[in-house]
Hints:
Layout: E1 4-7, H1 9-13, H2 24-33, E2 37-40, H3 46-52, E3 61-64, E4 69-72, E5 75-79, H4 87-94, E6 99-104, E7 109-111, H5 119-122, E8 129-131, E9 144-149, H6 154-165, E10 169-175, E11 178-183, H7 188-199, E12 206-210, H8 216-220, E13 224-228, H9 233-237, E14 241-243, H10 248-264
Parallel strand pairs: 1-2, 1-12, 7-8, 12-13, 13-14
Antiparallel strand pairs: 3-4, 4-5, 6-7, 6-9, 9-11, 10-11
Helix pairs in contact: 2-10
Amino acid sequence: MIKLIATDIDGTLLGLNQLMPNNAEETIMQMIASDILFVPASGRSHSSIENLFMHFIKDIAIIAENGGVVDYKGTEFFTKVLPNNILEELISFTDQNNTYPIINTRYISYLFPRIKKYNDKIAHYCTNLKYIAKFSEILGDVVSISIFVEDEKVVPVFEKLQEKWKDEVIFVITGKYWIDIVPRDVNKGNALKELMEKLDIKKEEVMAFGDYNNDIEMLALSEKSYAMNHASSEVKAHAKYICSPDEIMSIIQKEISHNNNCKKYN
């Protein structure tokens, strides 16, 4: 039986139109009632994910910042942070030309004023925004840096970053405008693995949905893994099944029914 269902948010659960499915709340309630742990997993900030699922915080787990921040039923499970010794240089390097850094602590996302013209593109990814003038105004440990690339030329930026800091941190292309910087060994898969070990959940008891390269490790940990039909061939190669975002809720509901039927006969 499935005991845990993990899903990416943007492009997957919300689809390409960034809309929550009409029956999502009902389906999440059914998962909770059936003892299936629901785990939204995203590169989004912790507060952004909390806002999306505020009615269920005490009953779900959250994987935020691409695996750098994990909560379990409203309690912090772990938070991993970027090394302080390279932060200022990283931020300065990404705050120029076509790139704009968003510096994420656990609860606040810091931005520089030049990104304001793109506020409509970033507001739903990070909710607790604070504009600053200089690096020294950042308070607290930094869990990730999200880089908005205004002209979509993420690959050249990614390559430059890799060339300078590949031994200190991890760079992940998470969308056509986005590159995330996270601590070494941080990804959604490693976060999910720690959660599974804590709860004694096996691979065959996990279902996962994703659409981008930062979902690959998470899909690999799942016995029932689904890549979105718009995903790249690389992502699809790591999934057992292909579906559209519109099909996710019905797939989950069928799994809930299967679980409930199994319980009746055990």
